[in-house]
Structures are given as C-alpha cells and as structure tokens.
Specification:
The complex is a heterodimer of chains A (111) and B (109). Chain A is an all-beta fold. Chain A is built from no helices and eleven strands. In chain A, 0% of the residues lie in helices and 50% in strands. In chain A, the strands form two sheets. In chain A, strands 2, 4, 5, 6, 9, 10 and 11 form a seven-stranded mixed beta sheet that branches. Chain A has a four-stranded antiparallel beta sheet with strand order 1-3-8-7, with no helix packed on it. Chain B is an all-beta fold and 109 residues long. Chain B has no helices and eleven strands. The chains are: A mainly beta (111), B mainly beta (109). The interface between A and B is medium-sized, with 29 and 23 residues.
C-alpha cells in the first residue's frame, strides 16, 4: 500500500541547475499539493491541483512550475535553482474535503 | 494577515497536564478543518478532523467556532509521546489547503 510516493528523497543541486521532483499517489485522489517547509516554519503551499488538468498557485509559487501529468502524478519543477529554495518539499493528495495524505518528503539543498 | 494563524508557542508542560492550542483563519468561506501533528520534520500526520459540533477522540477534543473563525485543540492528561508540533489546517473553497505555522509542544517528565 504505497500511498503517496515522492522521488528523490534527497538531492543536492548547484545554483542555476534545474530539476523535477516527482510525486505519485495510488489512492485515486482528485486533489494533489506541493508544500515546502523551511527550518522552524510551517508548511507553505506552492501549487495545488484540484483535479486532473487544473493547477493553481498557492502561497509561494515564484520560482516553481508544476504539471499534473495524469490523475496519479503531480510534478514540481525548479527551472533555475536558488539557495533560497533549499527546503524540505512535501507532496500530498486527498479527496475533496477529506484529510490529506503526505509523502515522506524530498530534502533539497542548493549550494 | 496570514490565512491561518496559531499560538506561537512553544508550550512546555508536565506530564498529566491539560494544554490548549488556538488557531484562527481569515477566509470565511473555508469549508473543512483539521489538526495534524508533525514529529521532527517528518511528514505531517492527521490527528483529527474538526466538526462544527465539536468532536472528541480519547484525550483530544477539537472545537470549531465559524462565527469567530476560530479552531481549538485540547489535550488532556498529556503524555511524553504527545511532544510534537501541532498544525492547524484549513481547506478553503476550490480545494486550497493552508497550514498554520504550527505550535510546538514539549511534555516534560
């Protein structure tokens, strides 16, 4: 029972490099989310997708792009990584009005 | 103003104490509410949903006041294992889900 799977779990990038964080869920959830969590802070919503084919900005979308590839997968892309994007990234999914289920997180460091 | 605000904490309480966390939200159209706990920057885990009539799950009681846009969590008979960060979560319309900054709880022997 995989739930929400995030890859990779850890990544180190150099400033200016690009990368895509992958997220997949096997619970047939309509909604998917990307959050970032900086040390000592709460989770901040980057982007979310309420259904396949739609995406919306959250609280901190600048510097990121997303793709809802299909109902299962929601990827987050950093086109030109900056040190300020060093963080732990969490993906989540849910049915409408139901609690979210989270992946284990991706720990991303940008040098 | 942030969409979801919580007591800044941290809360340090002895075992057996009762502790209450408060949360306010700014969007009056918010539809559903939850409390999550998070341990050592692991993924957040659902503690309980919050219903309009209030609800209880063992030592935990959640209350919602829609008129005041206020949510609370009460923990009775605190255990060492309750030490964690407690996150207030609000779902607005269109399925946007916002987390509060969290309140840290340390239960001391």
């Amino acid at each position: 029972n995989a739930g929400v799977t995030q890859t990779p779990k850890f990544q180190v990038l150099k400033t200016g490099q690009s990368m895509t964080l992958q997220c997949a869920q096997d619970m047939n959830h309509n909604s998917m989310y990307w959050y970032r969590q900086d040390p000592g802070m709460g989770l901040r919503l980057i982007y979310y997708s309420a259904s396949e084919g739609t995406t919306d900005k959250g609280e901190v979308p600048n510097g990121y792009n997303v793709s809802r590839l299909n109902k299962r997968e929601f990827s987050l892309r950093l086109e030109s990584a900056a040190p300020s994007q060093t963080s732990v990234y969490f993906c989540a999914s849910s049915r409408s009005n139901q609690p979210q289920h989270f992946g284990d997180g991706t720990r991303l460091s940008i040098l | 103003r942030k969409e979801v605000e919580q007591d800044p904490g941290p809360f340090n309480v002895p075992e057996g104490a009762t502790v209450a966390f408060n949360c306010t939200y700014s969007n009056s159209a918010s539809q559903s509410f939850f409390w999550y706990r998070q341990d050592c920057r692991k993924e957040p885990k659902l503690l309980m949903s919050v219903y309009s009539s209030g609800n209880e799950d063992g030592r935990f009681t959640a209350q919602l006041n829609r008129a005041s846009q206020y949510i609370s969590l009460l923990i009775r008979d605190s255990k060492l294992s309750d030490s964690a960060t407690y996150l207030c979560v609000v779902r607005t319309s269109y399925d946007k889900v916002i987390f509060g900054p969290g309140t840290s709880l340390s239960v001391i022997p």
